[in-house]
UniProtKB/TrEMBL annotation:
The keyword Transmembrane helix applies. The keyword Membrane applies. This is DoxX-like protein. The chain crosses the membrane at residues 7-30, 50-71, 78-99, 105-124, 145-163, 169-187. Keywords: Membrane, Transmembrane, Transmembrane helix. It comes from the Bacteria.
């Protein structure tokens, strides 16, 4: 069971990440031609009727960034924390527009997010009890500056693909895949750096 737990958390992270990353990309891609299973892809157009088109784009970009954090599994803790207010925002929009069913889907996704956060519960004690300097925080994989920069380059390619989709959908998808590969290489880069320093990454 102990070996299955990390795999389960990773699977939940990838699922949540794909869900929201795909939803955000679909809102901004040309004619909404992107992979995903939740919508509505036309949220920006719907909110423009109320003068809230910019807010709709803000939600889409937030979904891309937070979803990408979880999809690539590099920033599971930060992404899952940011996921809570994002789901809250989307929930308020769906309730305001009287969309049925969507709140139940969001409740399920929020539950999955809370499962991830539970695995990082040792991080939250310092936030509640600021005066206590003695906390039992589990050691986790160390990240490097170069790894962060490589991951950010992959995220940047996601945004770069959006305007490309207006003229060439296949090329835009290629840029998206390239970005995912680049972000994935951030882990590989860190392993190489630590091997050179004779350190092992668990």
């Amino acid at each position: 069971m102990k070996k299955l737990a990390p795999l389960m958390i990773t699977a939940i992270s990838v699922f949540l990440g794909f869900t929201f990353w795909g939803a955000g990309m679909a809102k901004l891609f040309y004619e909404h031609q992107f992979f995903g299973w939740i919508g509505p892809t036309w949220l920006v157009e719907e909110l423009e009727h109320f003068g809230l088109g910019f807010y709709g784009r803000f939600i889409a970009f937030s979904q891309i960034i937070i979803g990408y954090m979880l999809l690539t599994t590099r920033y599971k803790l930060l992404g899952s924390i940011m996921m809570i207010p994002m789901i809250g925002n989307i929930l308020m929009v769906t309730i305001s527009l009287q969309w049925r069913g969507t709140p139940f889907v969001l409740a399920f996704l929020l539950l999955l997010d809370l499962i991830i956060l539970w695995q990082y519960r040792d991080f939250f004690r310092p936030l509640i009890d600021e005066g206590n300097r003695r906390f039992d925080i589990k050691s986790r994989t160390i990240r490097t500056r170069n790894g962060h920069l490589v991951w950010l380059a992959g995220l940047g390619l996601q945004f770069f693909s959006i305007p490309i989709s207006n003229s060439n959908w296949l090329l835009a998808c290629g840029v998206v895949l390239l970005g995912l590969v680049v972000s994935g290489l951030s882990f590989r880069l860190e392993r190489i750096q630590y091997n050179k320093a004779d350190l092992k990454i668990p």
